[in-house]
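Recall from the previous chapter that SMILES is a line notation for molecules. Here it describes S-adenosylmethionine.
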Amino acid sequence: MPRKKSAAVAVHPFDEMHGVETGGLVPAGELVTGHASDAHVTAYYGVAPSILRTLVEIWLETEPAHPLKRYTFVDIGAGKGRAMLVASEFPFKQVVGVELNAAMADVARRNVSHWEESRRSDPTARRHAQVRLVEQDALEYAWPKTPCVVFMFHPFEAPLMKKLLQRIEKEFAGRAGELDVLYVNAECASVFAANPAFQKLWFGMVKMSPEDHAADKAAIAQQVAYGSTGDEECGVYRLVGRGRS
Ligand SMILES: C[S@@+](CC[C@H](N)C(=O)[O-])C[C@H]1O[C@@H](n2cnc3c(N)ncnc32)[C@H](O)[C@@H]1O
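With both inputs in hand, we obtain:
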């Protein structure tokens, strides 16, 4: 996410190419739902597609326990669905987005149906994973029985992240190695560091493509709260449980 420093919307090349609407920065104050989790929301901002693609490649080098095609990709805090659409370019078993805000979820559903429709009518389109949006608080989500790779683009602050990791631990009890996390703009890295059930596999800066960086700068040109550096601090984690030596 752009570094902290009213939303101007510039069309991102991803949106232009695919006829979807995933742009803009929506501050926390405009994402109020009445749910208790609102207190920790950060903002809506779509991930740079190049960052997500690179992070998936980094993850694949960490020797996941299963082939990619067995994993459900779960985007916690799916927003308008950009990360879901990009993830569906990979042959995951399925892609699920979990989004608390109804307006964001509506836009994501529209984007997903346009994306699927245009892929169906294009015989040259690459095979892609099925995509589904769940309108729900992240803490209430019922996790799939498949291996999962969880994607997060800094959706909420530390108190909620702590609870989410505890919930994942409970839901995946006895299933060590079955859940990996790809975390972009890893502001809550200390929450992972404090939880021994999660092993850090990789941590560092991921650079966005020049095209994404230009779009990032254009999107935030009229903002005072954020700036763009062209890279994101990212982490890759594996749920290993607490029983390891
Ligand atoms: C930075 S955006 C990320 C969007 C998307 N993952 C992407 O990368 O394109 C974070 C999103 O998380 C959502 N969010 C925040 N707290 C949430 C919660 N407790 N449960 C579900 N979604 C949440 C916000 O409404 C916002 O749309």
